[in-house]
Amino acid sequence: MIEIIKRPIVTEKAMRNQEQGQYVFEVDPHSNKIQIKHAIEKMFEVNIISIRTARVKGKIKSRFTRRGIQRGKTALKKKAFITLKQGQSIDIVGGAAGAE
Hints:
The chain is α+β, with helices and mostly antiparallel strands and 100 residues long. It has a single domain (5-99), classed as Alpha-Beta Plaits. The chain is 18% helix and 45% strand. It contains 2 helices and 8 strands. It has helices spanning 12-17, 33-44; strands at 5-8, 22-27, 48-56, 60-65, 68-73, 77-84, 88-90, 97-99. A 4-stranded antiparallel sheet has the order 1-2-6-3. It has a two-stranded antiparallel sheet with strand order 4-5. The chain has a two-stranded antiparallel sheet with strand order 7-8. Strand 7 and strand 8 (97-99) form a beta hairpin. The longest helix is centred in the middle third of the chain and has 12 residues, at 33-44.
């Protein structure tokens, strides 16, 4: 379960969506929606209405060093957009969950 959910994504856009009961998490790229739903419901003790996922491709990066140009690629990431039942919330900063 802990391996499925890597971390919550805390950006301005994600924080704005929290008012409507939507939260964004970075998850394991090989996990599916059912596994994500069970992991979040067990971890935060909330009821999930819907889950949307998005795969974010890795970026190509390059840097100049003494040995020449080093090229590489960042890893693939997967985001899960979680919509909770009305009246429930997740405290991302404190890590505690509960219904209001």
